[in-house]
Amino acid sequence: MRQEIEIAFSAPQHDGHKANPPHCEFLFGAAAYSVSVVVLFPLYKTIFFQQLDGIPWIQALIRYRIEGIRMAYRGVLPPLLQRASSGALMFGVQSSSERFLVNHPATFNYSPTLHKIVSSALAGWSEAVLMPFERVQTLLQNKDYHDRYKNTFHALINVTSNHGVKELYRGLSPVLVRNSAANGLYFCGHKWLNDIRVRRTCESTMERSLWNFALGGILGGTIGMVTFPLNVIKTRMQSNVGGSFNGFRPTLVSLVYEDSDKPNILRLFRGVPANFIRSVFSWGLITMTFHFLLEINSMIC
Questions:
Q1: CB-CB neighbours of 239 under 10 Å
Q2: Furthest-apart CA atoms within the chain: distance in Å
Q3: pLDDT band at 4 (very low <50, low <70, confident <90, very high)
Q4: Which of 77, 80, 118, 82 is nearest to 99 (CA)?
Q5: pLDDT of amino acid 51
Q6: Cβ(297)–Cβ(25) below 8 Å
Q7: Nearest Cα residue to 50 out of 137, 130, 141, 128
Q8: Fewer CB within 10 A of the terminal residue: the chain, N end or C end?
Q9: What Cα–Cα distance (Å) separates residue 240 from each residue in 8, 244, 263?
Q10: Do 133 and 82 meet the contact criterion of CB atoms below 8 Å apart?
């Protein structure tokens, strides 16, 4: 009976190719995220300026140019380490969790969508372990702390020694919500879009890669807009070092009522256009790279 279950509910596969070893999904997830960070970091930095100070994109771009080439990639190491590790956890934990749920006797008869949602949430929560990198990135990119923190490791040591490990997890609540929601939408959305798209009889690797870029871009841009307010709240919560922790709700209220006594929801969406462009290219690159590596590996192995 156990063998029948394992045959009927085999591990999730990608684009019709045979299943890769579990460790490959961790490695290729890290590689895909790394490519995205290095290519798109300058654009991300202008979005950060908008989230932090609420300035228009043109003004953020001017500020980026004024800082110069020397500061262009300041703060890139934390997101590179964090995103590479996050990509490994996102793709690796999601695939491993889904494989476990699909093959386990207690859960194999649940719907595939539920398997994917649960495994996506687990992956998102596991990614939150890497918040210290995201926290330090916020500090290094904030002009108020340029003189206080020299680099990633200096900031980590300084913040931990002066304020404790807890300070590195300031802004945890919006990160947990963002990660689980974004992962669920991404993995379920990619499966659905990939199932309904029109396929030619003999598709080349290049064609599949372009399709994955398009699907990833569509999903990334959409999910980026949906979760953008959570990133704004997270950035504001992490903009200070030391002192009391501002909760999710007080931070949201302070942002909405920042400029006047009347609520301004648009404050939560400043930077959306640039973020949409970044998300389209970022998730296009991530999705294309990840599935390309899986496909090449399945051909070699």
A1: 19
A2: 67
A3: very low
A4: 118
A5: 64
A6: no
A7: 141
A8: N
A9: 52, 10, 23
A10: yes
What is the residue-wise DSSP string for the chain? -HHHHHHHTPPP-STTPPPPPHHHHHHHHHHHHHHHHHHHHHHHHHHHHHHHH---HHHHHHHHHHH-GGGTTTT-HHHHHHHHHHHHHHHHHHHHHHHHHHHSTTTTTS-HHHHHHHHHHHHHHHHGGGHHHHHHHHHHHSGGGTTT--SHHHHHHHHHHHH-GGGGGTTHHHHHHHHHHHHHHHHHHHHHHHHHS---SS--HHHHHHHHHHHHHHHHHHHHHHHHHHHHHHHHHTS--SSPPP-HHHHHHHHHTSSSSS--GGGGGTTHHHHHHHHHHHHHHHHHHHHHHHHHHHHH-
Give CB contacts under 8 A, 24+ apart, made by 209-213.
209/288, 209/291, 209/292, 210/288, 212/15, 212/284, 212/287, 212/288, 212/290, 212/291, 212/292, 213/284, 213/285, 213/287, 213/288
Cα 167 → chain centroid: 21
| Burial of residue 69 (number of CB atoms within 10 Å: 0-12, 13-18, 19+) | exposed
Contacts (Cβ under 8 Å, ≥6 apart) of 227: 178, 181, 182
CA dist list (Å): 214 to 221, 251, 265: 11, 35, 30
Distance (Å, whole) CA 270 – CA 261: 19
Instruction: Find the distance separating the first CA and the last CA of the chain, reported in whole Å.
Output: 29
Amino acid symbol at 262:
K
The confidence score (pLDDT) of residue 5 equals 37
Q: Which token pair is 28?
A: 């290729």
Tokens of 276: 């949409």
Q: Render pLDDT for 39-93 as a digit per residue (tens, 0 to 9).
A: 888 777 777 777 666 677 677 767 767 776 666 677 778 778 878 999 999 999 9
Q: Are the CB atoms for 29 and 126 separated by under 8 Å?
A: no
